[in-house]
Model the fold of this input.
Amino acid sequence: MAYVADRDELFVADGGDSSCIILSGSDFHQIDRIPLIDGSVTGKTDSPDTGYYDAKHRIFFVGNGGRSANLPYSEIAEISVDTHKIVGKIRVETNNVEAMMTDDAHDRLYANMRDQKKIAVIDLKQNSVIDTWTTPDLNLNTALVVDAPAQRLFIVGRKPGLFYAFDMATGKVVQQLPVTNIADGMAWDPALKRIYVMASQGLSILHQDDKDHYSMLTRLPTNGGKTGLYVPELKQLYVIHPKTSIDDAGLLVYRVNP
Done:
């Protein structure tokens, strides 16, 4: 999901409807619907599954297709937030595209190819995958964040829960660290040089000592929550957790101290 402030619109990757839904930010009524690859053919109805907004180019990228559409490949649709039209499509040879993020300075998009245990490097001028990266022990790579100034790509895998820092110039891992397992979200705070890994087995907070060295600061419970949002202006991290046998569903708010 992405909020485009100057249009007061929410762009939502809706797996149940196999589309991108656009809502009014003021009252949440539906403004538009952009059909994507039908993900209902297998009954899973989880296509599309991930989205990312590139504010510089005013494009909402949505991963769709793949296993839920009974396809061996996926597409990343490029949706203009101004025209509500698909302006490009990028084919990725994976049945499960997960988190993605751009490096605007180099016109690159990075996306997790989870079933392949790889990361796709996409040239946005060519709209094609130009390279793929992997490393031993990488598995179920879901969360992804780019530190563009340092040219470092952060990836978190599951089973085992491992954090990786990739050199974006070479595609090589400069460091890996164990983190809490079953991560679905990650946030990067460039001001404090901190990385927040949100996982159902807990929140891991890492520090970037320098661009090639990272250390664990602390781990905190998330009550099973593995997705969330960091708001740097408020210095607060929000994590949603599901209902469990010991707790109702809820929202956890972590205050970040320097």
The domain at 135-258 is CATH 2.120.10.30 (Neuraminidase). The CA atoms of residues 183 and 199 lie 4 Å apart. The two ends are 28 Å apart (CA to CA).
